[in-house]
């Protein structure tokens, strides 16, 4: 599975309150959450992000509370993938459960800049920075987890597996 998109760069320790501020947690509507995505980190992000864009970030992306609203807001905003130096463990699992592809890649996180065009191969973990003509190796997403992503998340995957039995 390949993803190509423009990059939005964020720093270290972007917590779930920066991804989706707690004042908007009175809804679970993905579109409403998307309209406030990354608002406290970049007030213009939600109005300027395009479907297929990519977030690049530093260490500990998604730290803070364990809310699923954070990856839901990112995915609903149209972000196709998040590449970071590292992720908070609960965010990592929530993102995959929500069907949001994420890759840990310290070198890429350091070298990628806002506006860079990336091509990401989730099968191999290869990240090509088309702007800089560089390549970075990330740990590929395991095949089973790719099935979750392709299905749209854990719940959709389970529904597919159960078929008409639900």
Summarize the structure in words.
The protein is an alpha/beta fold and 166 residues long. Helices cover 33% and strands 19% of the residues. The protein has 8 helices and 7 strands. The chain has helices at 16-19, 30-34, 45-48, 69-76, 89-97, 106-111, 143-151, 154-162, and strands at 2-9, 54-57, 81-84, 102-104, 117-121, 126-129, 134-137. It has a 7-stranded mixed β-sheet. Strand 3, helix 5 and strand 4 form a beta-alpha-beta unit. Helix 7 (143-151) packs across helix 8 (154-162). The longest helix is centred in the middle third of the chain and has 9 residues, at 89-97.
Unreliable parts: none
Secondary-structure element order, as H and E?
EHHHEHEHEHEEEHH
SS elements, strand count: 7
Q: Span from first to last CA? A: 28 Å
How much of the sequence is in beta strands? 15-25%
Q: Quick one: biggest sheet?
A: 7 strands, mixed
Number of helices: 8
Strand order of the largest sheet: 4-3-2-1-5-6-7
In brief:
With 166 residues, the protein is of the alpha/beta class. The chain is 33% helix and 19% strand.
Chain-wise SSE layout:
Blueprint: E1 2-9, H1 16-19, H2 30-34, H3 45-48, E2 54-57, H4 69-76, E3 81-84, H5 89-97, E4 102-104, H6 106-111, E5 117-121, E6 126-129, E7 134-137, H7 143-151, H8 154-162
Parallel strand pairs: 1-2, 2-3, 3-4
Antiparallel strand pairs: 1-5, 5-6, 6-7
Helix pairs in contact: 7-8
């Amino acid at each position: 599975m390949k993803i190509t998109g423009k990059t939005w760069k964020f720093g270290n320790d972007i917590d779930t309150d920066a991804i989706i501020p707690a004042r908007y947690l009175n809804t679970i509507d993905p579109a409403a959450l998307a309209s406030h995505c990354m608002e406290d980190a970049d007030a213009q992000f939600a109005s300027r992000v395009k479907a297929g864009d990519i977030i690049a970030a530093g260490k500990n992306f998604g730290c803070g509370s364990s809310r699923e609203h954070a990856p839901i807001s990112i995915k609903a905003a149209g972000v196709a993938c998040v590449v970071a130096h590292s992720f908070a463990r609960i965010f990592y699992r929530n993102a995959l459960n929500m069907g949001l592809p994420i890759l840990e890649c310290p070198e890429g996180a350091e070298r990628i800049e806002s506006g860079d065009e990336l091509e990401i191969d989730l099968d191999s973990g290869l990240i090509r920075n088309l702007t800089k003509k560089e390549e970075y190796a990330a740990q590929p997403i395991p095949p089973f987890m790719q099935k979750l992503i392709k299905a749209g998340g854990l719940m959709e995957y389970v529904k597919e597996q159960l078929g008409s039995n639900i």
